[in-house]
Every structure is written in structure tokens, then in C-alpha cells.
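Predict the holo structure. Ligand: iron/sulfur cluster.
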Amino acid sequence: MGFSAVYIHVPFCLQKCNYCDFLSFPGKPQAAVVWQYFDGLKKEFALYRERLNGAIFAPNSNVTIYFGGGTPSLMPVEFIAEIITMVKQAAADCGTNVIEITLEANPGTIAQSYLQGLKASGVSRISLGAQSFDDTDLAVMGRLHTAADIKEAVAFCRACGFDNVSLDLIANLPGQTVEKWLTNLQQAVALEVEHLSCYGLHLSEQSPWGKAYALGKLDLPDEDSEIAMWQAGRAYLQEQGYEQYEISNFARQGKACRHNLKYWRRENYLGLGLGAASCYGNYRWSNGETLTDYQGKLGKGRLPIAFQEMLTDEVVLAEGIFLGLRCTEGVSFDVMKAKYGVEIVTVYEKEMKQLEKAGLLFIDEIGMRLSPRGQLLANNVFTAFLPEKPE
Ligand code: SF4
């Protein structure tokens, strides 16, 4: 056993976006706070190494590292470099390598010199939170950047030698139409980025937009428009040579995000930092969400875990299936048998037949995958595999 991926959460953002419910504190963080946080990340990683007697990574597991947030690019590049060196050393001690290092960055706050430092420290992939190419949308979302900043950030990445750049874009924004969504995608494609993540707007109740929506003060596209945007966007990106490899993710050949593929293949991953989640076989846990709790526990030599659970084998199997189904390659019966020791065709015979009949699943002798309609109704498919189904 051992992990094969490390996620590092950086919970700082210069300003909170109006739709966001990610764990991040708004405002420029003080240098001392960032340093303490960085020190905590190193302590946390060292504790895991100690608990696992150094065998933190599975041999030959080809480790990936992902700096997410928040805004990881608010961390000094020397800190990022030191964390990378620490993880690489641990991987080498376990007989494996680090094969991909992604860092999320905000296009409004990324300098070319910073990107140069990231490149020198081994970061191989930059994921830019573009969200939209419409300056009006960006302003109402509370983003700190403009469309011109996105273009400049991609140019900086290229100038620094990054050949793996991803853009995040959000669909179903207030007032967005299929035409506007396609215009966004066209501008992303024109930048020749290798990867695109296209998520539908998700509103948390606590965000300013969530509250406005609850009061009927936010005009969002209706369900038919959402479906039309998703279908038109998918068709357009495929036409442009991007392969859809997951419900919301598209990539040029060979440029799928290897870190996220590990989540969808339900490999063991380690989350470091505030609120970060981890998964190891049947165990799942996540860290506390306050700096005081995080640093306090680490200061006493304890892991900063706030929640943990042990899943039954049935839930682990169901997760393995529905995470796998998120990917367009789908789920292979042989792989499932080797990993979970069961014939899913036997365990889920009834559910699979129903989903196939409803046109949501394609099934053959090798495995199963979501149909395009199944991708739209993915949650219905996933629910069918859970051991305890809602009434
Ligand atoms: S930059 Fe990202 S993490 Fe930070 S507030 Fe905006 S959406 Fe949330």
C-alpha cells in the first residue's frame, strides 16, 4: 500500500469570489502567517512519513503533486520548491518518482518571474482559474482579473517553457447563453491550451450568490439551457481536437491531468493543509478548517484530522464504480475484479440492466461507460450503485 498522490491546500485568496465556497481566507495574508502554514505542511508530511515508517508512497506508483486552493500562487516560490523537494525525496526513498506537479494560479496575480521560479522548482503543469473571457461576467463574479490577464498569463506560461497549461471555465453563469458559452470556449481554444476543465456553476448557500439565489435575486440559465451549453460545448471542443476524458474535462492527446485521474481511479491520496481530504483503502479523513486547530495539533505532534470514517467494502466498491464512470474510458470488469475481488456484472446485474435499458450506460463484454445521456444524468447513475439507496 502507500499513497500515490499528494494534494496541498493553500487557503489564501486576495479576495473572495461571489460564488465560492472553497476553504480560503480573503485578504493578503501576512508573511508570518504564510510561513507558519508552510511550516505546518512540512510537519504534517513528516508525521505521515513517520507513521508509515517511511513507506508513504507505493513503490512504482508514479506520484503526482497538486497545489490547489485558495490561491497557491500566493505562496512564495521558495516554499513551493521546498515542498516539492521534500515530496520528491520521500518518493525516491520509496522507489518511485514524481511524474506531474500541478499548481493552480489566478491569472490576475501571476508574474512571469514567479512562473520562472515554479518552472525551475519542477512544477510541470499550470492550471489557471480563467472562469470566463467576458469582462462583465468576471467583474460580477468578483474575480480579480480580466480576459486580457488570462491571455497574458498563458503567454507568461509559454515564455517560461510550460507545455501543459489548463484553463478552468464556468458554465451556467447568470445571463449566460449557449452563444456566450461557445465564445468563451473559442477564446480558450485560440490560446492553444492543452487542457480545459468546464464545470457548471455550483452555488453554496453561504456564498453571496447562493444567498441572492435563495432570495430570487439571481437569474440563472434554466435546465434546458444548461444542457444545451454542455452539449454544444462538448461537441465544439471535440471538433477542435480535445478529447473528453471525464465528464467535465477535455485534453489534447496525452495531456489529461494524471493527478485527477488518480482520484477517479480511486487510488490512495494524501491531502495536506487546512480542510484537505485523504483516502487510503477503506479509510477516508479530512483536516480541520481553522489555522488555530491545524497549527495547534501539529505543534503537539498530532495529525490535524477533524473527521474520519471507515467505509464498508460495499461503499468502496460503489465509489470505485461511480468514480470510474466519470471517466469516458469507463470501468473495466477485469480491473474491478483485480482491485475489489468481485464480478460487478454479478453484484450489480439488475442495476446495470436497468441503466442500460434507460439509455444511461453502454455495456459490452469488457466493461461499461456512461452514454452521453448518462453523463448528463450522472448522479442518477451513481446513486444506483450505492448500497443504501434513498427512498
Ligand atoms: S480565487 Fe478561487 S478559491 Fe479564491 S475565492 Fe475565488 S474561486 Fe474561491
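The pocket of iron/sulfur cluster is lined by residues 13, 16-17, 20, 22, 24, 69-71, 106, 129 (CB under 6 Å). The chain has two domains: 5-263, 313-385.
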